Amino acid sequence: MSTCVWAASGGVESVADPIVPDGCMDIMWDGTRLFVAGPDTTWWVPTNPPPGQVVGVRLRPGRGPAVLGVPATAVVDERPDLEELWGSVARWEDQLAAAGSVAGAAAVLERLLQARRANRDRPDRTVEAAIMSVRDWNGPGLVRMLSDELGVGERQLLRRFRFAVGYGPKLLHRVLRFQRFLDLLAADPERDLAATAARTGHADQAHLTRDAVQLAGKPPGQLRERARRLRSAQDAMSLAA
Q1: Nearest to 212 by CA among 181, 190, 239, 167
Q2: What's the start-to-end Cα distance of the chain, in Å?
């Protein structure tokens, strides 16, 4: 699936928790502002998260430019207002403000996305194939492997990949590999970190720690403590229900 609609309560995230790169781009509505969250290269924490619901539509890696009409490199690590990219979006903001519910706002964003898709080029299929290979890769020579596999010169591949994703295959591989680690940690916060590092393709726990600090702003041990807190909160909610 290339896109999904999501909602979060109490702002984009808790101010205590970093938002970690996932290779995606989002079009977001926070109740007053319609904006784009570009692909991140490192963690970030919103300084003034809005108090209410945030609704967004997530564009999978490589899909952003076909919807937004600008290279992904133009919005890397940025949060520009959508009108900076499209011009006036007042009619969409008016519809979102009048939606009255999260489901209503999500429906507006879905209509916005469909209207935009009708007038944009298709995503770069070569880059999409490269992204799929990046997900499964585990070894040396990533860019050369992609070039050989797809029959595209390395320079052209890197140019097209950065246009679509915002950065190169090696960084996307690190981002997706770290996301796999977070998924495993969320499923079982008590799992051994060294074994999890090996399972997710990290050379060793030191490499996992490097990625955790650079991409999440916290070492793996602190991320595990956060996963434990979230799991305890989920368990408490389940018991209360």
Answers
A1: 181
A2: 31
Tokens 């970030």 belong to residue: 44
Burial class, 207, CB count within 10 angstroms (exposed 0-12 / middle 13-18 / buried 19+): middle
Q: Are residues 151 and 67 in the same domain?
A: no
Which domain covers residue 170, as residue numbers?
125-240
Same domain, 133 and 113: no
- Separation of alpha carbons 195 and 202, rounded Å: 10
Tokens of 81: 């207002």
Report the C-alpha gap between 76 and 39 in whole angstroms: 5
Q: What is the pLDDT of residues 30-58, one digit of tens each?
A: 999 999 999 999 999 877 666 678 999 99
Check residue 103 and give its pLDDT. 92
Residues 236 and 129 in one domain: yes
| DSSP string across 159-212 | HHHHHHHSS-HHHHHHHHHHHHHHHHHHH-TTS-HHHHHHHTT-SSHHHHHHHH
| Distance between CA atoms of residues 227 and 238, nearest Å | 16
Q: Domains in the chain: how many in total?
A: 2
